[in-house]
Amino acid sequence: MAEAVDEVADDDMWGAIDRLHAWLDENSAHGGREGLLLRMLKLSEEVGEVAQAVIGATGQNPRKGTSHTWDDVRSELCDVVITALVALRTLTPDTREVFTAHLAGVTERTTLPARPPPPAAPAGCARRSPRS
């Protein structure tokens, strides 16, 4: 396991996504539009596994009790990210550029201040409160 972690850590993440995409293409039972749709649906399956792990980690199913750990949830979330990136790679060979540009746009629109600070009053002028 440690060797696999070192191998991916030393490698470019995007190269790993390309290799996973190529491996899936070579070993897929379905091609064309059907293969594309099934690869997109795989993401829903992985998200369902996150939900199952959360339910198990919190013991929400009285019949099963605590069947998972938060480490299981973390692992399933990683599977969601990997599956999403491979699905994106299926749609475009420019995965890195598309993802990076989209992330920058989301970050920009969600990290801007809600409203700019009010302008400073000119020197010697007191600002009146709305109730004055």
TrEMBL record:
Biased composition range(s): Low complexity: 122-132
Matches recorded under Gene3D superfamilies: MazG-like (1.10.287.1080)
InterPro entries xrefs: AF0060_NTP-PPase_MazG-like
Region entry Disordered, spans: 108-132
Name of the protein in question: MazG-like family protein
UniProt source species: Streptomyces sp. R21
Organism lineage string: Bacteria, Bacillati, Actinomycetota, Actinomycetes, Kitasatosporales
